[in-house]
């Protein structure tokens, strides 16, 4: 079979990413060569591919679900917000520009061409390309310059399925309204719906599904049930509010890990492997009232940041910086968090504020370079091989006595590294946690059988199972191969069919 599908959503976080990953895994298990695609992604959770390109972590996860190597073509445009109005634009995996919301419009025509070329390269290489939309296609204020939703679907003739999150409420209105707000040529590609995160009796939902079909002339291809413990690499830190990583509920006393969630937190999936370890609990904190938790945790993690200087100032304003500096116990800084732990930061690139003082817990200085470091390093720590990836402008220089640690350094109970993804290496993670527990005076026996890669694979299989069990897969296959059905009704806004 050959073809494509675009998974759109009624809102952000409706379930586009997980449905796309589920469709990729389901098709891959059928022997189909499938690849994910997101033309334009806004996310601070990114990854470095084997070719040295930075792309959104969600597309990486979808590629893994499809059983293929992630590439820049799968996410040709990545927007990384650095403030309320400014973002770094990453094109085909490399930094392209720093723009505000209005300036970005000047690049849209050029970027649309880049995205379409990437899409067609994937179509040549794979049997099926499963595209993920961005936000909602019904954001009609953005339709003129749209690259990722109906702009892509129209340009490439891709049928569209709209996913709605019923757990939010109002899913029928959102689905009907999504279609009705679009112009006729866009509506012609909206081929049906998938209801996501349903809890309850299916028979109570059935009348609504039938009414939606009658009112729109489009079927509901499936109703995906709420599945506890389901997770996937997220794009948006706002989704951390509902994040659930499977843990061993039978485990007894837990090693308590606190992760500081500053406003521009990035690569927060670095701690997923900790949360999946039996005997470890992970909690994100973000308020001044959380200072006690920071002081009392067995391990505090300062994760990556897209705006290191700004997030460091926020850390001070909340009092959490004092809690980190005043605690007696292990602290791990990753990338931006590592930079914050040093003596000083000179930044004329991200914030342009010049020199600022760090927390002073590690003997390092940081100077931001214009060129971004994108790498896939390998090394050794605790006698274990470690594979990771790097994404940063800050160049760290060790200025005093410190032990080397994963291309970073360590002094006493404080570790710092520029490497993302290191904790996904099972042997290293267990050795590191054992050291943390000993220094925190806690009993912790690592579980040798835990494989984080295996856990992720089981999540992909669970998503594939959801699609196979709860979606009309025959109808989906026909849609992918033949495109949107001809003669779909056009809904006038607020009108009847």
From TrEMBL:
Keywords, in A-Z order: Cobalamin biosynthesis, Glutamine amidotransferase
Q: Name one Pfam family in it.
A: GATase_3
Mind telling me which InterPro entries this protein's record contains?
Answer: Class_I_gatase-like (IPR029062), CobQ/CobB/MinD/ParA_Nub-bd_dom (IPR002586), CobQ_GATase1 (IPR033949), CobQ_N (IPR047045), CobQ_synth (IPR004459), GATase_3 (IPR011698), P-loop_NTPase (IPR027417)
* UniProt keyword Metal-binding present: no
Q: Does the keyword Signal apply?
A: no
Kindly identify the residues recorded as the active site. Answer: 335, 420
Query: What region holds the CobQ/CobB/MinD/ParA nucleotide binding domain?
Result: 6-230
| SUPFAM superfamilies linked | Class I glutamine amidotransferase-like, P-loop containing nucleoside triphosphate hydrolases
Q: Which residues form the CobB/CobQ-like glutamine amidotransferase domain?
A: 256-427
The annotated pathway is: Cofactor biosynthesis; adenosylcobalamin biosynthesis
Task performed by this protein: Catalyzes amidations at positions B, D, E, and G on adenosylcobyrinic A,C-diamide. NH(2) groups are provided by glutamine, and one molecule of ATP is hydrogenolyzed for each amidation.
> Would you identify the family this protein belongs to, as annotated?
Belongs to the CobB/CobQ family. CobQ subfamily.
**Name of this chain's protein:** Cobyric acid synthase
Q: Which organism is it from?
A: Sphaerisporangium aureirubrum
């Amino acid at each position: 079979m050959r073809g494509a599908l675009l998974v759109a959503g009624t809102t952000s976080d409706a379930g586009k990413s997980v449905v796309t990953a589920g469709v990729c895994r389901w098709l891959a298990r059928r022997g189909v060569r499938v690849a994910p695609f997101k033309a334009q992604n806004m996310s601070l959770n990114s990854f470095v591919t084997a070719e040295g390109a930075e792309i959104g972590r969600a597309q990486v996860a979808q590629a893994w679900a499809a059983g293929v190597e992630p590439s820049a073509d799968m996410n040709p445009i990545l927007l990384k917000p650095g403030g309320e109005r400014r973002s770094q634009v990453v094109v085909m995996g490399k930094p392209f520009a720093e723009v505000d919301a209005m300036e970005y419009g000047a690049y849209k025509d050029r970027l649309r061409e880049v995205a379409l070329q990437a899409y067609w390269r994937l179509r040549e290489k794979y049997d099926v390309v499963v595209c993920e939309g961005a936000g909602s296609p019904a954001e009609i204020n953005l339709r003129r310059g749209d690259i990722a939703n109906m702009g892509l679907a129209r340009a490439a003739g891709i049928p569209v399925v709209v996913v709605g999150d019923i757990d939010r409420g109002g899913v029928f209105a959102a689905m009907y309204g999504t279609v009705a707000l679009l112009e006729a040529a866009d509506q012609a590609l909206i081929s049906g719906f998938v209801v996501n995160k349903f809890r309850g009796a299916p028979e109570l939902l059935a009348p609504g599904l039938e009414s939606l079909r009658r009112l729109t002339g489009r079927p509901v291809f499936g109703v995906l049930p709420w599945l506890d413990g389901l997770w996937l690499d997220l794009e948006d830190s706002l989704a951390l509010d509902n994040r659930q990583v499977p843990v061993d509920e039978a485990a007894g006393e837990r090693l308590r890990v606190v992760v500081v969630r500053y406003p521009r937190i990035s690569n927060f999936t670095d701690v997923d492997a900790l949360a999946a370890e039996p005997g470890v609990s992970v909690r994100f904190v973000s308020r001044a009232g959380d200072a006690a938790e920071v002081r009392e945790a067995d391990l505090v993690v300062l994760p990556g940041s897209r705006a290191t200087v700004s997030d460091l100032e926020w850390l001070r304003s909340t009092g959490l910086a004092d809690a980190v500096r005043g605690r007696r116990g292990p602290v791990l800084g990753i990338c931006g968090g590592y930079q914050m732990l040093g003596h000083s930061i000179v930044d004329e690139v991200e914030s342009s504020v010049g020199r600022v003082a760090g927390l002073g817990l590690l003997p390092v200085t940081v100077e931001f370079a214009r060129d971004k470091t994108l790498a896939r390093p390998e090394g050794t720590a605790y006698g274990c091989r470690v594979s990771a990836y790097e994404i940063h402008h800050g160049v760290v220089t060790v200025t005093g006595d410190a032990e080397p640690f994963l291309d970073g350094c360590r002094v006493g109970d404080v570790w710092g590294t520029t490497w993302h993804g290191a904790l996904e290496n099972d042997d290293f993670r267990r050795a590191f946690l054992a050291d943390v527990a000993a220094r925190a005076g806690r009993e912790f026996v690592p579980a040798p059988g835990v494989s984080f890669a295996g856990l992720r694979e089981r999540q992909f299989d669970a998503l594939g199972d959801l699609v196979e069990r709860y979606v009309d897969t025959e109808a989906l296959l026909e849609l992918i191969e033949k495109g949107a059905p001809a003669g779909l009704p056009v809904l006038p806004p607020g009108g009847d069919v």
